[in-house]
Amino acid sequence: ISKGPVNSKSAKSTMIPPGPPVYLDLVYIPNHSNSTNVNVEFFKRVRSSYYVVSGNDSAAEEPSRAVLDSLLEGKSQWESNIQVTLIPTHDSEVMREWYQETHEKQQDLNIMVLASSSTVVMQDESFPACKIEL
Question: Helix, strand, or coil here: 8?
Fold first, then answer.
């Protein structure tokens, strides 16, 4: 009889282990901002001035409200209150609701959310745009 894991996928940890924080300028939140791999520990450890939030699939819960809430919880545990800018790549109902419901906490934590509805029109095409100044 084998004592090993029945399902090797369930035996593999997808969460970030505790450890010292890493400081970066720009972070793309992995997995289309789905809560499978991103939690409070991610934001406690991966500290950035800018986070890019992707995901526009509401059926797959992307971006995840849990991920956005994890940013607030993780940032509240930083020693310093440096400004953080959240850059959504798509406009979504989840993002709008989260922004409105947590706006006061965002301000307390020095988190700014850039509007995602800017559009650049060039000749016959248009595409979403965002200006980032580092």
Answer: helix
Closest CA to 86 of 61, 106, 54, 114: 114
Dump pLDDT digits (tens) for 17-58: 667 999 999 999 886 666 677 899 999 999 999 999 887 666
**Is residue 21 within 8 Å of residue 47, measured between CB atoms?**
yes
Per-domain residue ranges for the chain? 22-124
Closest CA to 20 of 49, 44, 48: 44
What are the pLDDT digits (tens) for 116-134?
555 666 778 766 555 544 4
The radius of gyration computed from the CA coordinates of the chain, to the nearest angstrom, equals 17
Quick one: which H or E segment has residue 11? Answer: helix 8-11
Q: What distance in Å separates the CA atoms of residue 111 and residue 105, rounded to the nearest whole number?
A: 8
Under a CB-based contact definition with an 8 Å cutoff, are residues 46 and 24 in contact?
Answer: yes
Rounded to 5 degrees, φ, ψ at 107 are: -65, -45
> Torsion angle, CA of 114/120/126/128, rounded to 10 degrees?
-10
- Phi, psi for 100 (deg, rounded to 5): -70, -40
